[in-house]
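At this stage, I wrote out one protein, both as residues and as discrete backbone shape codes, and that material follows here.
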Amino acid sequence: MIQLDLNHAHLKENVKDYQEQVVSIDKQLVSKTCLGNDFIGWMTWANDYDREEFARIKECAKKIRENSEVFVVCGIGGSYLGARAAIEMINGLYADKKPEIIYMGNTFSSSYIAQVMDYIKDKEVTVNVISKSGTTTETALAFRILKQFMEEKYGDEAKNRIIATTDKARGTLKALATKEGYETFVIPDDIGGRFSVITPVGLLPIAVAGIDIDELMKGLHDGMGEYGDPDLDKNPAYRYAVARRILQNEGYDVELFVNYEPQMQMVAEWWKQLFGESEGKDGKGILPDSVCFSTDLHSLGQFVQEGKKVLFETNLYVDKPMVDVTFPNDEANEDGMNYLAGKSVDWANKMAAQGTLMAHEETGGVPNILLTMPDMSAYSFGNMCMFFFKAIAMTTLMNDSNPFNQPGVEVYKKNMFNLLGKE
């Protein structure tokens, strides 16, 4: 379970004063009568997922690991962020695991696309294209390039190296997959993109990375119970949701998501989509931003400490690092660093976090929410997903907004299509 500490948040209201509202909203979620109720399949997914498909994901991943040097994940937003967040958090940034995982379909950058295509040209490749409709422009553009490359490289065999994760019955990509004979996995109708890392959208790339997806699902399942009680004394996810609303009531319109592990930077990117796309509507919501300390203390730290008081910090701490290092002794001590000799580098990281909290909260007057997870395992990732899913659903419904749609995203698409000349 993720631990929550609100003792540094300087809340001017009592979280428990919101208990009645929280119970009412929780009933709506459980009974599927809330705004956006067509997209709350994630709430019970850990019980409801298709076991046969899950086994097929593991079989497919094993085959890919055996025959591929590179696995290209072609998708944007929720179709790649969650998987990348999990893979980098659990395996680290320089994992000695094959195949290498590369992400395409998430940009229009010609330089990026050209460099990826040049990089993979002489390698054994499998492609996973991920799109509910098959018409998401960034993904469709990249996939056309990848599809032609795969057919030129492998001929008829290309169809065995392209996997489509898409709608179960309709859409452009589903029709193409059926026509070409690609293996397919299903994006559930009742789970939106930013919640989809727990479905085949995320599970196939995560399994290809050699991560135990059974453990991930176990963490998700346990989170259903740990964050399922509407009693605010027992549910840290809902307490966090309420604290966010209280802080915004106090004028804090920006939430700075803080971590101290570079391998969790993509978790922050995933979190930003989950929170920004869920509650940023109807002229409401908190702007989600993120930093990785202590690195970003040397860039944004000055603003946090002494700048305009528009933000609060949500710190996600990790009790146990993936691996630790002991700082060495140097007899000459020319750098004057022997005071750290024999000590754990992770301990130093935690002292930096403690010192930063003191500086920002006590001296800078910045409210801080503290979240702590036990480690960076597959189990903890799955558990963390349920924590943030429940929190953002509650906090957005408290604003009388629909947490599960994203109408604003369609505006740029319409303008872009007009400029591109799409009929």
Observations:
- The chain has a mean pLDDT of 96.
